[in-house]
């Protein structure tokens, strides 16, 4: 295929005729649209430790629902542990920061509500 800048000029070799390749690059053959508008995802931080079973449950729940999050291991990151306690007043894990709202423990209903999970 030959291009001039970002414009398709012609196909030198290929098993399809030139119009096929031209339509590919001019977006007339394959288009994809979503039937629903995606909501922008809130920033999610999970404060956890490797030995915490509720932390694992929380992260699996987020993974199963396609929620991206930052996992912070407070057993290794003492600055983050202090930040967590400052935000919530609590030392226990898991703690989840969803767009600035802190959830202590695995409160599935509240997490689902804040993230729009049905």
What do these coordinates show?
The protein is of the alpha+beta class and 118 residues long. The protein has 2 domains: 1-32, no CATH class; 44-115, Glutaredoxin (3-Layer(aba) Sandwich), CATH 3.40.30. The protein is built from 4 helices and 6 strands; from the N terminus they run ββαβαβαββα. It has helices at 18-25, 53-64, 78-88, 108-115; strands at 2-4, 7-10, 44-48, 70-73, 95-98, 101-104. A 4-stranded mixed beta sheet has the order 4-3-5-6, with helices on both faces. It has a two-stranded antiparallel sheet with strand order 1-2.
Largest beta-sheet details: 4 strands, mixed
Alpha-carbon distance between the termini?
47 Å
CATH fold-level topology of the largest domain = Glutaredoxin
| Cα gyration radius (Å) | 24 Å
Q: How would the global form be characterised?
A: elongated
Q: Architecture of the largest domain, according to CATH?
A: 3-Layer(aba) Sandwich
The beta-strand count equals: 6
CATH class value of the largest domain: Alpha Beta
Portion in beta strands:
15-25%
**Which regions have little confidence, pLDDT < 50, spanning 5+ residues?**
none
Q: Total helix count?
A: 4
Q: What pattern of helices and strands is seen along the backbone?
A: EEHEHEHEEH
Strand order of the largest sheet: 4-3-5-6
Average of the residue pLDDT scores: 84
Proportion of helical residues: 25-40%
How many separate domains make up the residues?
2
Task: Determine the structural class based on helices, strands and strand pairing.
Answer: alpha+beta
